[in-house]
């Protein structure tokens, strides 16, 4: 059974108000969807950012040297899994829990990709218009009788655009 939009909106607002920016990594400022670590003062960092820190690893907020290994924040990880959170892409109104949201964001039409012709960052949903406006000759020669489709390579967690014939 699907919830009415107003119920979903209230739940989303409640989760965002409850979490604030406490579920954001103090280094990259993204949601911490993997393992979460913290310094002795409780400043949290995501697993990806922790791995990128040079030795000696320091907290991004208070600059104290982190324990080796730093304290894992399992309770926060479990809470994050229960939250319904919005898609990170501007203009998208998708809301979902961690695993669904991660899957959606790989396929989100509001995600920005690099134009294969000019390297400008363009929303997937606007790619056709971008080609028409900025690359009319390329758009005509490429898209005549062809269909632009998307293949998702989940192993690489990346999206690749390619032209396929019908």
Keywords summarizing the entry:
166 residues; 9 strands; 34% helix; elongated; two-stranded antiparallel sheet; disordered C terminus; three-stranded antiparallel sheet; alpha+beta
Give a structural overview.
This protein has six helices and nine strands; from the N terminus they run αββαβαββαββααββ. With 166 residues, the protein is an alpha+beta fold. Strands 2-1-3 form a three-stranded antiparallel beta sheet.
What is the overall number of helices? 6
- What is the spatial order of strands in the main beta sheet? 2-1-3
Low-confidence stretches: 142-166
Question: In whole angstroms, how far apart are the ends?
Answer: 37 Å
Radius of gyration: 20 Å
**Proportion of residues in helical segments:** 25-40%
Tell how many strands the DSSP assignment holds: 9
Rough outline:
elongated
Percent of residues in beta strands: 15-25%
Q: For the report, how would you describe the main beta sheet?
A: 3 strands, antiparallel
What's the rounded overall pLDDT mean?
78
Q: Kindly name the structural category.
A: alpha+beta
Order of helices and strands: HEEHEHEEHEEHHEE
Write the layout of secondary structure elements.
Elements: H1 5-19, E1 36-38, E2 44-46, H2 47-52, E3 71-72, H3 74-82, E4 85-86, E5 95-96, H4 98-107, E6 112-114, E7 121-123, H5 127-134, H6 136-143, E8 146-153, E9 158-165
Antiparallel strand pairs: 1-2, 1-3, 4-5, 6-7, 8-9
Quick summary:
With 166 residues, the chain is α+β, with helices and mostly antiparallel strands.
